[in-house]
Amino acid sequence: MKFPYGTADFHAIRCEGYYYADRTDRIRTLEDAGKQLLFLRPRRFGKTAWLTTLENYYDLARAAEFDELFGPLAIGQNPTARRNHYFVLRWDFSMVDASGNLAEIRQALHDHLNSRARAFFARYRNQLGDWPLTLQPENGVVALESTISAARASGHDLYLLIDEYDNFANELMHGRRADYDALVSGEGLLKTLFKAVKSLASGQGIDRVFITGVSPVVLADISSGYNVSKDLSLDARFVDLCGFSEGEIAAVLNQLGVEQQRNPAWSARMLETMRIWYNGYRFGYEPGPGLYNPTLALYFFEALATTGAPPREMLDSNLAMDRNRIDFVARQPHGEELIGAALDPEHPPVIASLAHRFGVEDLRRAPRDAPYLGSLLYFLGALTLRDQTPFGELVLGIPNLVIRKLYVEKFRDQLFPNYPERESLTQAAKALYAEGKLAPLVEVLEANHLRVFDNRDYRWSNELTVKTVFLIALFADIFYVMDSETAIERGHADLSLIVREEMRRFALLDHLFEFKYLSLQDLGDTAETLRAQSREALITQPKVAACLDAAEAQLARHRQGLEQAYGERLRLHTHAVVALGFERLLWRSCSGAPAVAG
């Protein structure tokens, strides 16, 4: 099998024999949905591939290729009357460089509009004849108007496709607010451009518009510049327009298994790996199965096809920059609180409904209970729809482990901001991974790091704070499948580190943690007296011993469930940990042999 990893061009995918997940049955439904449509999905979620599908379907210059491109697909079996009916003009705002000053960004947008107009006239020269293209280097709207005039004169309708409409504006929003405002408000260029599209789509030459992007923020800030599009992002008919279903993932893995002469257990194991790392996105209000991020899925498939094993790094580097989006949300009022709630399984983020239209000022001025920040993280793909409360409120959650990593990295930067601290943490973590030694890690964490999180506004329970610190300190996705509240047959473990199957050739142990917390009030002690006492003295205190006993009993039950699941492959060390306030950590570790205390 050939996989179009890094290729979003429908024409190339079909002509060069790449894998293609057919969604063309939705073309008919899209035609009935409206003439000016907006579709939002997270970055790298297949939006461009869908846009190029529409481009090839409607382009009158592709009429001779229709059977080759679409014949075997759903729409090829029952095409609409508008197939190969349009001139198609496509803009891609991800190509607009946002790194320069405001004048350079404006010029980059003008250059893109002019470039696309020149390509349009070259493509349709036979239909346009000698109609002249009018360009002004510093006014790309003139190129649009000239293009529309030529199309109308030829007697053909025009379909405008706008890909990543908010791409370069988002880059400015996250760090250059004044430049952002200058583009989207008043007579800003982006607002002016969309006003022109709105006017030209009102019987003036543009028949249809399809826009993709990540969030509604930029359109909201453009305001009246373009307030005529119909948003299909939550429409139940299109929730899986982009993304792969688990059935599609399983079918590919089975085919790869056949090609590589694997036994069926291999395909099942790869499916479980992908489910943990990449599944879990839900779009729309109705319950349904999760979707897989298509870029990550193709990244994984490509690794299997070329090396026979999953990728070493489960997060494609092309998506790593999404951390910046989480940082942006964290900087907004109540943003830190929301980011913290995302890691809290007991009190996840809850919003009344998803906000469809909100601008930057809404994010900055919103009260705590406003849905804007939660909605933005949903549109970014950093949160997804998990459930609904009995009152119909929306429960949000982190979709999968690869996104959880982005949150963990953000908190790790806070907890261990300096290189010497990170190096100490790395060495301490290695001692645990390979030898089961917890003492070096405890020494690092007790050096003020617990108190850093105690003073943050995360509204976490004390036990969750300790658990989160360990998750952040030990997160190593290259070697482990890591999760908090790990589902095990006999209940939920607080934190597990299960070695990835392809990494079991290394000297790595599996680990399972259970955490307890005793406050200074519970202990009748002060921070100073706790810090002064030895671990040997503290661990014999009745309340401490009782907590450790309870944690060990839970771990013993969880061990049985994991041993049944993994059999002899498992090299499990369990760790019962009790935090005394945010001052001291005590533990008992067990490898199946007598426990080691500290």
UniProtKB/TrEMBL annotation:
Domain AAA-ATPase-like: 4-222
Pfam families named in the record: AAA-ATPase_like (PF09820)
InterPro entries per record: AAA-ATPase-like_dom
Descriptive protein name: AAA family ATPase
Native species: Lamprobacter modestohalophilus
